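ok trying this again, last paste got cut off
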Amino acid sequence: MKKIMILALMVSASFIACKNDKPKETEAVVATPEVETIADGTYTATVESSILNWKGFKPTGTHDGTVAIKEGNLVVADGKLTAGDFTFDMNSMVVLDIPADDENNAKLLGHLKNSDFFNVENNPTATFKIVEVVNGETTVVKGDLTVKGITKSIEFPVTITQTATGVELVGETFKIDRTEFDIQYKSQKFFDDLKDKFINDEFEISFKVAATK
């Protein structure tokens, strides 16, 4: 009888030991994604594939269009954007929100090019030079924009990616105050009798630059 009881206790102990002996959990191995490294060097803008977009605002609506990039370059060091400069052809300005064959298109374009706005006859180009690039969660470009011979510091977010032929720099939408470049036409800063006939001081800019070595 004692032998039977001892045997029963041994079997119970073995059962409990097996029950508590859980297999160790295997930690999942998470692969670290590869960070795309951009090849160092100086890249020249491909003007046919690069463009600057603009959009102006007023109480009764908006107007938008493009300006071509005449020339430019980007410098990448240690896989990051570090410098660059661009020249914009102000004579290439286009209005997109009005059909090209509509006389109002030519009227608006002529007005934008005259002395009320960009005075293109005397200022056929505008320029932008990168002074500093702040790399973080978002890459921010700081630089000097020159319009109508007036230079002001601006900054805006960008993304730069490697492409099959070089790099692509995209400037996210940001705003510029036109009055800082002596464009005062129908600005509430300078005229207090405009009622709803004013034009917003700030206009939007975005751009895409394709560049190759």
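PB: full thing came through this time. Residues 186 and 197 are 7 Å apart (CA to CA).
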